Amino acid sequence: MEEIQAGLRGVLNLIYFVLVIVTFLAWSFLCHLVIRNPEKRRAQFSKNVTFFCRIILKAFGMNLTVKNKPKDGEKFLLVSNHMGFVDILLMGSIFPLLFVTSNEMRETPFLGLLTEMGGCMYVERRSRTKILDEMKSIVTALQNGFRIVLYPEATSTNGEQVLPFKRTLMMAASHAGVPIQPAVVNFRKVNGEDFSLKWRDHLCWYGDITFATSLWKALTLKSLHAEIEFLEQIHTTPEDDRGLIADKAHSLISEKFVPVKGIAVPAVPPELETT
């Protein structure tokens, strides 16, 4: 019975989701036609994302608690852990942001169009030769007043840990004269239960899971309570060691990250056991 109810809920949510996305694309395309200035167009795209993310969260029973929300007008390069498109919806609902994603995503049917209409910035993760030019474009956007989201894990994860951070693009903050703003995303309750292996594939898009599968599982959920906490800002200069900066941001986020419950705890070698 529970599976039947989840299936019906998924179908209804899918219909609603499609309507919201079609409206989002139509409105953003209209903005694309009307607003000729590229910067103003991108700013409008980011506002559109926030508006429609809030609609989706409310419609699908996603409740978000935000801790230490930055002040209005404060500029920064936001870095966060990343588990899939659900945390993008959560982050995008807080305030207008520009997300950095990959050229592979841009070339993906449907998702590429979504990211274009969302004002995303693109990096070529398959090649290191363009990374400095890509960093310059992020620097320019930061200097123009945009808040930019960078996922330095460079992929979405299975909720077990925060992967090591890629370093170079994080230096865009120092070149733009803005701080790095770390933030941690945690899933607290799913359908009233703790975030465990039972619910992981409903919220985490990782490995070989297709977008369609991940989306369907998310749409069958009754409720989600998530939390985003903004952590201590990191102020840097271009001369700072990028490795140390990345490690500090990773440490701040890892300390606050709550992994999915139910994963096996690595055995402690006898020689490392303490009393």
From TrEMBL:
Listed GO molecular functions? acyltransferase activity
State where the protein is found: Membrane
What keywords would UniProt list here?
A: Acyltransferase, Lipid metabolism, Membrane, Transferase, Transmembrane, Transmembrane helix
The family database entries (Pfam families) matched by this protein are listed as: Acyltransferase
Q: Where are the transmembrane segments?
A: 14-35, 76-99
Q: What is its main location?
A: membrane
Phospholipid/glycerol acyltransferase domain boundaries: 76-188
**Among its keywords, does the record have Transferase?**
yes
PANTHER family for this protein: LYSOPHOSPHATIDYLCHOLINE ACYLTRANSFERASE, PHOSPHOLIPID ACYLTRANSFERASE
Q: What is this protein called?
A: 1-acyl-sn-glycerol-3-phosphate acyltransferase
Q: Which organism is it from?
A: Bdellovibrio svalbardensis
Classification of source organism = Bacteria, Pseudomonadati, Bdellovibrionota, Bdellovibrionia, Bdellovibrionales
